[in-house]
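User: I'm putting together a small comparison set for a docking exercise, and I want a reference complex before I start. The sequence is below, and the ligand is pyridoxal-5'-phosphate. Could you produce the 3D structure with the ligand included, as structure tokens?
Assistant: Of course. I'll restate your input first, then give the structure tokens for the complex.
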Amino acid sequence: MNKHCFASDNYSGVTPEAWRALEVANAGVADPYGDDEWTLKAADKIRDVFETDCEVFFAFNGTASNALALAAMGQSFNSVLAHELSHVETSECGAPEFFSNGSKLLTVKGFAGKVDVPGIEALATERTDMHFPRPKVISLTQCTEMGTIYTPDELGQLRDLANRLDMHLHMDGARFVNAVAAMNLSPKELSWEAGVDVLCLGGSKNGMAIGDAIVFFNKNLAKDFDYRCKQAGQLASKMRYISAPWVAMLEDEIWLKHAAHANHCAQKLSTELTQIEGIDLIVPTEANGVFVNMRADIAARLRAKGWKFYDFIGEGGMRLMCSWATTQDEIDVFCEDARGE
Ligand SMILES: *Cc1c(COP(=O)(O)O)cnc(C)c1O
């Protein structure tokens, strides 16, 4: 077991609440393929938490959720516009293109992992002839791959653009709850009220073992989505083991509590690290990730002590992710090791 870890929030285990829910759901028999009481309840809970009548499906992970959602939002001759650092572009092995039978992903640059209206508009209107795929979806990540957060206002501007261009808005919400906790807003304010059509709601990074929810606020797009899930091998036979932890995590805002803890840890880590000579923030710490430039000798010393973290963010850029399970002690020891104490 690796104790020294800020590599990713999915290195953490399962929260006690989610674990307990599995034990409860394990008692006795239940209908398969999502016809069980937990799956119905989990979908109802999501409708409660988002305060709207949306359609909810569950898949095994975020890659499948994003890929199938994007496939449902356009046709094979359409394109999906996303940030160049987006998970759908960099980390899904072409699954969105594969499951959409070829919808092309087109990428834009943008500060701090965010797409903006001028960037998307320029790309979407660059070509209008039939020899180039027709733009149909804007895909956003909340929180972004740089740990930043789209405000409701920024989302609203992208929604207006999508309306003007007859496009849909997809949100990869692998860390959606971290954004909700950090902004102290309600889930609806960062999703359908701001114009999101489909949200892929992540569970694993918030402390569940497996299973993401695909939430269709635009219910027209959900037509036959159950067939898509089944064909893609994403319909769990024993669905209760995916859905029961969702019920438990959405109870009494427990998912928010865990996300707020992760965010709080990142704030502490960020504050302490930036007092060390040779470490500077690349982007502000807004959620549960700290992105820094770090002098090579400091990074080498930390790695020699067994600390794990990614350095795929540009030249010298390091990503340090906090989770529901991060402790004050880990933060203290990491900072001591960084200082060379
Ligand atoms: C982790 C993550 C996902 C989901 O990845 P899976 O490994 O397929 O569950 C999706 N989007 C982002 C931004 C992520 O960080």
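The chain has two domains: 16-253, 254-339. Strands lie at 55-59, 78-83, 104-108, 134-141, 168-173, 198-201, 212-216, 279-281, 289-294, 317-321.
User: Thanks, that's exactly what I needed.
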